[in-house]
Design a protein that fits this description.
4-stranded antiparallel beta sheet; single chain; 341 residues; alpha/beta; 34% strand; 7-stranded mixed beta sheet
Length: 341
Amino acid sequence: MVHCVRVAREDGEAARQRLAERDLVDGSHEIRAEDGTLYIPVTDPAAVPGTFEVVDRDVPRRETETMPADLLDFEPSYERLGDIAIVDEDDPERARALADAIVASALPVETVLNRASKVRGEKRVRDWEVLAGEGTETVHREYGHEFALDLAAVYFSPRLATERHRVAEQVSAGEHAFDMFAGVGPFVVPFAARGAEAVGVDINRTAVEYLRENARRNGVADRVTAIHGDVRDVVSGSSRAQRSDGVRDVVPDYADWADRLVMNLPHSADEFLETAVALAGEEAVLHYYDIQGEDDPHGPGEAAIREVAEPEYEVTVETRHTVRSYAPHELNVVLDVRLSR
């Protein structure tokens, strides 16, 4: 008998991902499906979030699978995004060996990509070296949602899945939610799935096209508006933005519209704070992402928000949260801030 989380089959993938984020999935046993229910083996039942039901179940032991580490004489480092494995190797021989091991392993991977440049430009894209397979397009699954994307044409980080889910769980049906730098929709789609009316803006036309596709793919197109253009043009309503079909449309006026705003552009979000305040309604929650030194990671962002929002809004910082380590002595952080007019 093994400790298992019991969930409905349709909630299984979202549950498995949430447990995997906490390193709680017991990989030595199989996930069992019975009569519309999934039983997911867990390593530590005491650490399972209270929203899950834990039961004892007889499940089969998993046969040993070959992993990349089993085929190499060094400890491999890689990420998975859909059926793509992402590596970051400067040594060509080491990169080749790692790619060969990934392809030969039991990982369900079709393509191996090596980072060939840093993220750059206003579209936040990078170059890739294809080590195995073909192309840079994939479908990524995250907390029950699917996101089609092309890594060579858009920015996407699977490392932020837990953070995106943290924010999405705060969203209520009927909210007006606005993502100022939406990409392919990893915030917008979950917001709409929770019943919000969601708007996503991005300067990258290809990202906006994927955002529209992902809204349709996840059955929330009726609650999603995707706009290609500079978010600073959206407030006035007098400017125009380029649609994917080439038609230039007048952008609706979203001033004073938003109940929730996402500003996930950590290197330069402060440059868009005046726009965020203009978009905010009578009361709004602002999720402000920043990269700062570890000595004072939250102070500069809070000061910037107060400088722009006060005295029109009362500013209350509800959460100061570290998302991840970004570089030596630098942290990627988020402030959840309530603005009350």
